[in-house]
TrEMBL record:
SUPFAM superfamilies documented for this protein: P-loop containing nucleoside triphosphate hydrolases (SSF52540)
Domain of life per record: Bacteria
Function: Catalyzes the reversible transfer of the terminal phosphate group between ATP and AMP. Plays an important role in cellular energy homeostasis and in adenine nucleotide metabolism.
Chain residues that bind AMP: 31, 36, 57-59, 85-88, 92, 159, 170
Protein name (Swiss-Prot/TrEMBL): Adenylate kinase
Domain Adenylate kinase active site lid: 127-161
Subunit structure: Monomer.
Keyword annotations of the record: ATP-binding, Cytoplasm, Kinase, Metal-binding, Nucleotide biosynthesis, Nucleotide-binding, Transferase, Zinc
Gene from which the chain derives: adk
Catalytic activity reported: AMP + ATP = 2 ADP
């Protein structure tokens, strides 16, 4: 299964990606996670990406696409993958389509996680991420009283781009640059929308119900 998750910042792409990818036994490929790993590793890519990420702007397409091409070329992605956060605009979608076609592949499904802006702000304000295993938590919804990961005991951190004004800018960037992908993929016939409100497990259930008809 070759799957893309699309939706505004805070929709729950990363949260759902960890469960969906594990259910389907495919790698979860998150461009945001790869950029953040490069930022903490102090690489040249990380230094470049950080300047854009801190403002809530998109990292230039050329850089992002080269990184995704490398990742999709790895062995574990040959029989399927779940992309979280890529493509992020129509030019990225066009290049992904061409890249996959050159490899004799194509996308099976694009899942849109649908949630309103107020919920997004609530979710991002309380988000914490594990610095060790990458698991995503929420201070209120997961009742996190301490800063340790329940899964691996790693330290939890708050993302630099989750400040309120940066979140607002990320939402604008989503509306301007990413939302056009919804009609792009609707025209391609690969788009399915999923209501992403309510408990995490219910959203996963809805997502799996939407995916099932597309499984080979
Ligand atoms: P990226 O990391 O992709 O950020 P994003 O799209 O803004 O999305 P988020 O990760 O903020 O939200 P999410 O939908 O994953 O929500 P989550 O599951 O964490 O990108 C970051 C930056 O990298 C970009 O701004 C850009 O600079 C750069 N970048 C990345 N990809 C790029 C690309 N292709 N091109 C160019 N630049 C790129 O959930 C949020 C919170 O809500 C969590 O606390 C979670 O616990 C909670 N939650 C989730 N589901 C529920 C639920 N059902 N109920 C209650 N709480 C919930
Ligand atoms: Mg994410």
């Amino acid at each position: 299964m070759r799957l893309v998750l699309v939706g505004p910042p805070g929709a729950g792409k990363g949260t759902q990606a960890q469960y969906i990818a594990s259910n389907l036994s495919i790698p979860k490929i998150s461009t945001g996670d790869i950029f953040r790993a490069n930022v903490s590793g102090g690489t040249e890519l990380g230094k470049l990406a950080k300047t854009y990420m801190d403002r809530g702007d998109l990292v230039p397409d050329q850089v992002t696409i080269a990184m995704v091409r490398d990742r999709l070329s790895e062995d574990d992605a040959q029989d399927g993958f779940l992309l979280d956060g890529f493509p992020r605009n129509v030019p990225q979608a066009e290049i992904l389509k061409k890249m996959l076609a050159d490899w004799g592949q194509g996308l099976d499904l694009v899942l849109e996680l649908v949630v309103d802006d107020d919920e997004v702000v609530r979710r991002l304000a309380g988000r914490r991420t594990c610095s060790q295993c990458g698991r995503i938590w929420h201070v209120e919804f997961d009742d996190k009283q301490d800063d340790r990961c329940d899964a691996c005991d790693g330290t939890l951190f708050q993302r630099d781009d989750d400040k309120e004004e940066t979140v607002r800018h990320r939402l604008e960037v989503y509306q301007e640059q990413t939302a056009p992908l919804i009609s792009y993929y609707a025209d391609e016939g690969t788009l399915v929308g999923v209501d992403a409100t309510g408990p995490v497990e219910e959203v996963t259930q809805r997502a799996m119900d939407a995916i099932r008809p597309f499984l080979g």
